[in-house]
Amino acid sequence: MTGHPSSHPNQGAASAAPRRIVVAGGGPAAHRFADAMHARGLDGWHVTVLTEEAHLPYDRVALSKALTDSDVDLTLGSASMWDHTALNLKTGERVTSIDAAGKTVQTAAGTIYPYDELVVATGSDAARLPIPGAELTHVYRTLEDVWSINKAIADLTAKLGRKVNAVTIGGGLLGLESAAGTEQLGATPIVINGSPWLMNTQLDEGAGQALGRLIEAKGFTVHGGVFPSEVISDDDGQVTGVLMADGRIIDADIVIVAIGVRPRDELFRAAEGAPQQFQLGQRGGVVISDDCSTEVPGIWAIGEVANFGGMCLGLVAPANTMAEIVADRLHGGDATFPGFDTATKLKLSGVDVASFGDAFARTEHALEIVYADPARGVYQKIVTTDDAKTLLGGIFVGDASPYTSLRPMLGRELAAEPGAYLTAAGGGDAPETELPDDAILCSCNNVSAGTIRDTVNGCGSCDGNAPVRELGELKGCTRAGTSCGSCVPMLKKLLETELTKSGVEVSKALCEHIELSRQELFDAIRVLELTSFEEIMAKYGTGAGCDICKPTIANILASQNSAYVLDAGRGTLQDTNDRALANMQKDGTYSVVPRIAGGEITPKKLGVIAAVAEQYGLYTKITGGQRIDMFGARLEQLPEIWKVLVDAGFESGQAYGKSLRTVKSCVGSTWCRFGVQDSVAMAIALELRYRGLRSPHKLKMGVSGCARECAEARGKDVGVIATADGWNLYVGGNGGATPAHAQLLAKDLDDETLIRYIDRYFMYYIRTADRLQRTARWQEELDGGIKHVEDVVVHDTLGIAEDLEAAMAKHVDTYVDEWADTLKDPERLRRFRSFVNAPDQKDDSITFVSDARGQMRPATAEEKARAGQQPVLIGASIPVRATAPGLPDENEV
User: What's the rounded Cα separation, in Å, for the pair 256 and 134?
Assistant: First the structure.
């Protein structure tokens, strides 16, 4: 099918009788079209938008906000736009028929609207289930839908006097958003998904399995690979469960169906008087040309009702692009639709998910570079051409930080080898990417990097071509970041880069809820002695916070006060591992890592560890940080295990926290004939001094007894190497994907001076680093680098050395072992049970087998199937590109 010009060649020209545009539909696509016409000028045009809903056009992408907050305003753009005399918005007017010959549309109220150009943006309907009891379910599509769900959960909670079992049928984008919303409303979220893994349209099996593990760890229950056959209810019509095709019944109090959408193309099926029949897609939707026109002159289709290339997609980016194209065409332009951008990014209860481009590597000879860490629920994949240079697509689950910089590089040559972008493999940052001017930074609104740069340096739409200095102003001028929001981090970074080039000071706001930088927030909390999240947000924040500011504030509070990290409401701010005081593994069990300071341990304590491992059937391994890690403990077993360990004199090794991990040491002068200092004694002293010290990221130390450097001290955040005259102090070393050698800070120090300098260094880093910033990157970004660190730590040029030492002394004096504290309080022990409502019940899905080396390990899905258990999807079979399996933070390489 070929496109055609508008039926009115004098489009947009001012005249006594303006050309009439009628828009059928009032969703995001319709709003974007009206906005695009308004931006291009309405002289000679009159636009009437007919929407069946009672609201102004609103943001369907943000429906989850309305699910949890019925008062939230999702209105798109400024309501004042509709005050324009050439724009007429009619709410409560549903278009029911098109008379193509007479060029009119009729609404359900019987009103006739004549048109010169008709833009159909009727969107789609939520798909329904063709099963018994489907009439008892809710759908997730409109404001009324989510308000109904909100009210139903509130009413049921009050009626039943317990948590509501909220079942969502559908494991795609909408289904997971719905389930996350029910969880925030206090219900127990349960997801039924016909596919074996979640989001199977956007994610491959490994990524889907990783996503499943992450959301299950957050309290979601997922039933995959089986379909529902009936919604069951009692005699009063109250839902009681969902009967599955395999005969199981899943308890349910409310059922939400989010299995997809169907194009609302009934207007085209019922159109009268068309000179030729509209062409409809095989799966619905009206077929359009690349100019978004239908086969009938003067009738256009945009958004989810439009079928292009055999596809109808419910994504905001293509809908916006279509709207802009029609507006451009009506103003005499020649814009064409490039095809669907299927990039997806979302965050569910703090879980990052992103997919873009050729995510399934369907391009001939495509390469897949994969890192999978089932223990953390992290999966990262980059798809490239066979020469590993040109980016074709990618998938990220658990850690989607590379997405923002990679997405605009789709189809372009990467700046570094692909593995460097798999940030989860080594904890380093992705390589810096300088976006070309023609790279699309915001796909939702088709905004290029060059447009952003031009706007920052002089916005053509502002008076006097004034430069843009604020992120909000930049978003308003370009529309970038105003839809799904996934490009905002890259947008902010590009803004800061351009401002820096212009010599303008850049804002370092922590997140959208807190305008202060982490450093400023740390100082404010310290000076005002704030002790709770609520106090801090009331004084410096807005809203309820997010997954950036919540853990950051929890970390800052823990850095300044050695109080129990899960008390006083801080538990809800922490990450999963911190809440369990242990590292979760791939099968849902946990690892136990007692502190072994400096790697020194007595035979008696070795015997205690051996006895615990034997009693509970744990896998044991010596870590790279000279500790013993015991794997395979169930949640409810952790207090029992730690009771034995604490009684034997052990304490938490804090392998789960952003804190000091280990101080590695060689045997030193006590035994080694080359040793010149007692490295073991120094390592133990340092580990006992800085244990429990919470920081922006994990901390590792090493002490070598001579220049042979057997403890690899220069690969650590702080490294100490013995000399004949004392100790050399090195700082800022990191391993990972972008390793950095520690740099010499001071030479030939005595014990007291060494510790004093380390006190200052650690505390200065804790106060001034960004969130999740390792010491190597922190030093690199400091103005002056290692010289600045030397000035502050050694020469006290800022005059804060005494304050830094006092802060460290406070930490040392107030340190308490987290597990010892936990065991003293029965209320704290309530956290450690597999099932909240059945504290004595064990998790029978956890199964171990023995390997050829005489150790236990988690059973594979195949082994569980042979044993008659329901298979548990894990990512162990996915190709892994990493130096070691498991959790890098734990292995302490």
Answer: 10
- Mean pLDDT in the chain? 85
Does pTM surpass 0.70? Answer: no
Per residue in 720-754, pLDDT (tens digit) is 999 999 999 999 998 876 678 899 999 999 999 99
Helix (H, G, I), strand (E, B) or coil at 209: helix
Report phi then psi at 269, rounded to 5.
-70, -30
What type of residue is 554? A
One-letter-per-residue 3-state SS of 778-795: HHHHCCCCHHHHHHHHCC
- Pick from 360, 359, 313: nearest CA to 337: 313
- In 92-172, beta strands by DSSP E: 95-99, 104-107, 112-114, 117-120, 124-126, 138-139, 165-169
Lowest-pLDDT range, 360-364, 491-495, 538-542, 761-765?
491-495
Q: Pinpoint the alpha helices (H) of 543-678.
A: 549-560, 576-580, 603-616, 638-647
pLDDT tens sequence across 632-688: 988 888 999 999 999 999 999 888 888 999 999 999 999 999 999 999 999 999 999
The token duo for 854 is 């005489």
CB atoms under 10 Å from CB of 672, counted, come to: 16
Q: Which residue has the tokens 């020649």?
A: 334
As given in the structure block, the two tokens for residue 509 are 């706001």
User: Cβ(559)–Cβ(694) under 8 Å?
Assistant: yes
The residues, any chain, with a CB within 8 Å of residue 161's CB and separated by 6 or more, are none
> How many Cα neighbours within 13 Å face the side chain of 672?
20
CA angle at residue 92 from 86 to 94, to 5 degrees?
90
Helices 801-814 and 751-768: angle between axes, nearest 10 degrees: 90
Q: Half-sphere exposure of 432 toward its Cβ, with a 13 Å CA cutoff?
A: 5
Tell me if 352 sits within 8 A of 400, measured CB to CB.
yes
pLDDT by residue (tens digit) across 59-110? 888 888 889 887 788 888 888 899 999 999 999 999 999 998 899 999 999 9
530, exposed or middle or buried, with CB in 10 Å at 0-12, 13-18, 19+?
Answer: buried
User: Taking the mean position of all CA atoms in its chain, how far away is CA 603?
Assistant: 45
Distance CA(570)–CA(818), nearest Å, equals: 14
- What's the rounded Cα separation, in Å, for the pair 603 and 656? 26
**What's the CA gap between 856 and 843, in Å, rounded?**
18
Amino acid in the structure at residue 37 = M
pLDDT digits (tens, 9 = 90+) for 586-623: 777 889 999 999 999 999 999 999 999 999 999 999 98
The DSSP call for residue 707 is T
What is residue 110's three-state secondary structure? coil
Look at residues 886, 883, 879, 885 and name the one whose alpha carbon lies nearest to residue 370. Answer: 879
Which residue from 207, 179, 209, 215 is spatially nearest to 196, judged by alpha carbons? 209
Longest dimension (CA), the chain: 101
CB contact at 8 A, 24 and 50? yes
Q: What is the pLDDT of residue 506?
A: 67
* Pairwise CA distance, residues 766 & 717, whole Å: 13
Task: Judge whether 892 and 624 are in contact, CB under 8 Å.
Answer: yes
- Token pair for 855: 């150790």
